[in-house]
Input
Amino acid sequence: MTYKFACLNNISPIGLKRFTNRYEQVSEIEEANGILVRSASMHDMEFSDSLYAIARAGAGVNNIPLKKCAEKGIVVFNTPGANANGVKELVFAGMLLAARDIVGGVNWVRSNSGNADIAKIAEKEKKKFSGTELQGKKLGIIGLGAIGVRVANAAVNLGMDVYGYDPYVSVDSAWHLSRKITHVLDVNDIYKECDFITIHVPLLDSTKKMIGKEAVSKMKKGVILINMARDLLVDEEAVVDAIESGRVRRYVSDFPNATVSGKKGCITTPHLGASTQESEINCARMAVDELRDYLENGNIKNSVNYPNCDMGVCTAGGRIGIFHKNQPSMITQFTQILGDSDVNIAGMANKSLKEVAYTLIDFDSPADKDLVRKLENVKDVYRVRIIK
Output
């Protein structure tokens, strides 16, 4: 079987090379079985019945209509951790730019570049751009996922005193976290104690503007705030006011907008977090691998709208995937239909994620379209896909 894929943005050719000769790239989105995307908005798109999966070459998926996709049985993947090192390095670049006033110094040199005595004048003027070092300072990290853990460990190696806050830290993150990091249970301890604060949490309804006026008022005077995650995590108007009052020394953000761009005390980069050759390659490779494993085997890994489910490579006669609501008695109905159709189950996995669920079933013989129609007619089934 040949699968078709489309790219809505430029995707690293090195990553695309992981597609085999069973895959064909198409320009018409309606023909695609899989879509690779970075930043293109998909909220107003209509999806054809041919589309099985979308892979976001990056972590954030706010440009994709997740609920709409779930109800059509379209799996949405992201690539957590693939760009983590690139973002980590930009965090430290931001910290250094803010702590040392490097930007102010560079701008001074540029404005005086035509002066033959610039070297002599610089010795007198450089005191205007004096700053502070990172070593010995307290760094607070809100969110200890793939990026937060890397930032924490690197900061320890730079001699910083690191505080980490994440009530939902995963086992994998905990294993990779340096034992020198102080894991705090109250985010207010971060605000009160830390000279630098960096935020690394996903943008959810519960995290929108979590760094607001109240949080800022609790921060140590002269704090440097770093935001390389999402601009809406921070009430930036409150931060700009706090810079004016002296509460916040610098705000470094990777998200230019009218609120912070060019404002006093704000250093803004044009969304460069994952803009490295290495990050783009890593994200593309991971996205292609996720698409291939799903299209070829029905396995789901790193989906944001369906549960992870892995039954390996199908060695049985057939395999189907059923997308449905997470309701009682669904499995009973499926097995009843299979029994009535004289179909023997060779293996089965059922996983759920909040309101939705995914059931993967192997058979001794290939599944036929009549069986698929019967399963599709079960109430609360979104989609049935023949994988083999």
Notes: The mean pLDDT is 95.
